[in-house]
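Researcher: For the record, we're logging two predictions in this thread. I'll number them. Prediction 1 follows.
Model: Prediction 1, sequence and structure:
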Amino acid sequence: MTGIGDAAAGASALARGVRSVLTPPPEPAPRAGNWSPRRTYAVRPLAV
């Protein structure tokens, strides 16, 4: 049964990855010096 669960998890992860690649960004890229709170919040975990 674990194999089926792993396959389902992999398929859902793959679907999320494809969906994130196919969907355009919700907002345009910010200009230099113009940081949106949402973008900084999304990048903060990567910097830590």
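Researcher: Logged. Prediction 2.
Model: Prediction 2, sequence and structure:
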Amino acid sequence: RVNFTDSTPFLRGVQVSGDERTNTVTLIGESRKVEVAIGQLSQLDIRRRQVAVNVRVIDIDLLALERIGTSFSFGINDTQVSNDGGIGFINFGRRTPGTTGISADLTGSTIGTASSVVNGFNNNGFVRDFFLQLQAAVTNGSAKILTDPTLVVQEGQTSEVRLTQEVVTNFTQNITGGTGTTPATVSITVQKASAGLILPVQVDRIDDNGFISLSIAPSIARPDQQVAIQLPGTGVIANNFITLLSERRVQSGQFRLRDGQTLVLAGIIEDEDRTTVTKVPILGDIPILGALFRRTDNQNRRREVVVLVTPRVLDDSDRSAFGYSFTPGVETQRVLQQQNRR
């Protein structure tokens, strides 16, 4: 059977007074108890360790840019119609070889008889040449480093990198109804959000074995498209644009790394399909035949964000590139010497 009783406080009788202005503590009591109290305070009043965290955020284009387009051209008699990227060209008349620069007659045997049909035009006036051009271009994959900072973070603190710009994402309209001759009051509130890269780094703990416990939560938001809106009661759409944001975010949670190890966070993938139509004005809007004067491009993008985290515990000695020197005071030096004798 175990009986639990309150123990007598060992430091009972020691008087303690503190001064916030000078940031000092005064102890009055027996010498042995004062030395024990100083030893306990020395354990509490130690510098927090620091770590240099290198965070590299890389945006990788998985498929690069896949582009597939179509364009048409055709000819009727002496007229050739072609479409290149939505720009229409019409050529009239037959094409004959130029004679500029020929200074002498060509002699020799006859090679052959010239054809009466040039570029596929026949004498009946029907379409002879009809070309369909299928264009496909694939660009090699590329990677872009979005940011590569090295943050010095103290144990238990959070540091953040923000490479953003503010965009308008919404409007809020409040209408306060009037009474009698009092007109209604209309107030418009603009809501904004940050577009760009936000990278918070939190260092939770640095232990004596060289392990660092930390967490990161990178997020990337980019403008997707702009939408024109009409505020009720104004009847005006112009200049009222909101920006829709496309955001990629990852929350790592707390993880532990050894000093100098690198953690790779991957799998933040964005898939985007985009169709672009360029056409000859008016002619490109004609049903069925309008396809002869239009060009359609289909683009597909797959992008992945990869985050590499490398922490390094800072050395407080002079030989450290990130370190700093510390010269203790007279009283602190005496306490440290007493601790070393034990």
